[in-house]
Amino acid sequence: MPSVVSITNVGTTEFQTFFGTYEQESQSSGSGIIIGKNDTELLIVTNNHVISNAKEISVYFNSDGEDADEDNVISAKIKGTDVNKDLAVISVALEDIPQETLDIVKIATIGDSAMLEIGEPVVAIGNAYGYGLSVTSGIVSALNREVSVQSDGQTITNKLIQTDAAINPGNSGGALLNSKGELIGINSVKFISEDVEGMGYAIPISDVESIIGDLMNKVMRDQVKEVDRGYLGINGVDVTSDVSKSYGMPIGAYVDKVVDGAAAQKAGIQKGDIITKLDGSSITSYNQLKEALSYYAAGETVPITIQRLDGPEYKEITLDITLSTSLQAGVKSEE
Predict the structure, then answer these.
(1) Which of 6, 29, 172, 326 is catalytic?
(2) Is the pLDDT of residue 309 over 80?
(3) Is pLDDT above 80 for 256?
(4) Catalytic annotation present for 279
(5) How many domains does the chain have?
(6) Quick one: 90 and 27 in the same domain?
């Protein structure tokens, strides 16, 4: 299993009490697939929900269920995400990986999921229950199954491969392989019911290969110091999946207020616009937009895609926006 890794996500979870909202550190595990390599990075594809809300991401190479060898547990950074497809690409610096590990790991061979047939044998590999990498086998039970999952607080629906190969918690982000050992799907979810067993799902690789390529090519960014961060100068609210279905609005960050003289107003953003992408990455909530902006400095120019109501329909517009300083934007409007 030289192309599949275990992933640990240390993040925070918000919970409500009578006394208010609190944050608690949480840890979860998942899987990833080595999908590429450049001069400085090893690139790994996984599910967005595996690394969502992460403060720290660790990749474990050569996981066999035994105690982790510290040399093979390496910090990773998020390269890019696509919430709507529940995809993420993370990066591990080559200089942090021991040479003996680099000699063993391999980039996955990509197959053609469009050629799959019902009844075809498949193998699922992943970090089941966080115990280390394991292998299960089965067949393709169905194709193009519409399945809804939660990702970053939103309900997203995609057409997935259904398999009876066991896909358990922790397997998310792992590999679904055909009989040739080619990657034909990314394990995504397991249907859990008292009455139904053996319904696992995977994202068809051919449907998302170009999206993964775009995420792999994104420029790595570190979070900018708060004093240097760039701002749009807006107030926003979430357009959730429920609101989207009820009112026919695109999912994203609804612009409720535009600060006079700040970046958004100068670029032409208006109250009522819905921000759906920042620098090519999907935006599904106002909090996600603020988190994404924390990686950009004031004075940087970034492409932002909005949906604007034009008669009975929304029209997509992409604007190049030069971000404001906190003073120009009125920081309180974005916190």
Answers:
(1) 172
(2) yes
(3) yes
(4) no
(5) 3
(6) yes
